[in-house]
Amino acid sequence: MTNTMQAAQINHYHQNQLVIQPTPLPRLQANDVLVKIMAASINPLDLKIMAGGLKLILPYQMPLTLGNDFAGEVVAVGPNVTQFKIGDAVYGRPRKSRIGTFAEYLAVNAEDIALKPQNLDYQQAAALPLVGLTSYQALHDLMDLHPGQKVLIQGGAGGIGTLAIQLAKSMGTFVATTASRKNFELVTTLGADRVIDYHTENFAEVLSDYDAVFDTRGGHTLEQAFRVVKPGGHVVSISGLPTAQFAKDYGLPRWKQALFGLASHQLMRLARQSQATYHFLFMWPSGQELQLLTNLVERQTLRPLIDRVFTFDHLNQALDYSRKGHARGKVVINIGER
């Protein structure tokens, strides 16, 4: 193994194209494994980071290697690691301070990964960690959904939606979702009980008395979610505004807590009026929760949906395709088998 690798980086925010260039191999810490990355997936988070949209929460140093989840093979282990060995096929979402999966190798804390599901190849497995953990943490950890409850999942045909629908159905819930007419069959096959054509219907006018709404859109769509939930219900968003409480829990300074408090004032007011809770979800890595998802995949309860696979050399074309917002499921980058 050489001392350098190829990695896709930005040198400043608002850079639309990634530059694939040589960079030093990551240093292995005592609790890390070094993974040869076989595949990674594109997430909206990557585009937000490139655009500088998360600087207040994640002030990265430049140059920055992008990429937030992966599947690959362990090629080295730190001295404190006992649960993984060289040759293991693993997948995961590295912690936010150590992203960089658009590269040939990644050093990742062993607590942030799990063994790859045996019934998935590397490309399929790479499509799962970020959207899977985000969906699980929204539906299970924050909403605490139970059988018989009703949940609305926005954007059912997207990377998050296709996974969240399946997960919500595995929890025994009634699932409504929004989609364009051409994707009705897809989301119904995944388990959606009620599908709303967002081109012709306003979900807030046809749905009511829901236990929870999982928002992936933000803006006016998020505000309307509070018309759908019943008292005691939950609205969880990955695209809305962070709250003061989120900033405090995340360890941000008081001035940022105050700033987010002001920005999210309208959302918190809507939550109080509807007697519901509002959470901004910034998912966290968890090898333990990934293992739960692995079990569901191996029982064929969950399956990742891939829209398109690009080679590492065509990563920028993949980003351009993702920006259009029309992918059905995930966009995957094949890195280890170019």
Estimate nothing, just give the exact number of structural domains. 2
Query: Radius of gyration over alpha carbons?
Result: 20 Å
State the CATH superfamily name of the largest domain: Medium-chain alcohol dehydrogenases, catalytic domain
* Tally of helical runs: 12
What is the fold named in CATH at topology level of the largest domain? Quinone Oxidoreductase, Chain A, domain 1
Q: Main beta sheet: strand number and arrangement?
A: 7 strands, mixed
Q: Determine the mean pLDDT.
A: 96
SSE string:
EEEHEEEEEHHEHEHEHEHEHHHEHEHE
Tell me the distance between the termini. Answer: 17 Å
CATH architecture of the largest domain: Alpha-Beta Complex
Strand tally, please? 16
Q: What percent of residues are in strands?
A: 25-35%
Shape: globular
The parts where pLDDT drops under 50 for at least 5 residues are: none
CATH class of the largest domain: Alpha Beta
Q: Which secondary-structure class do the elements indicate? A: alpha/beta
Helix residue percentage: 25-40%
Please outline what is shown here.
With 338 residues, the protein is of the alpha/beta class.
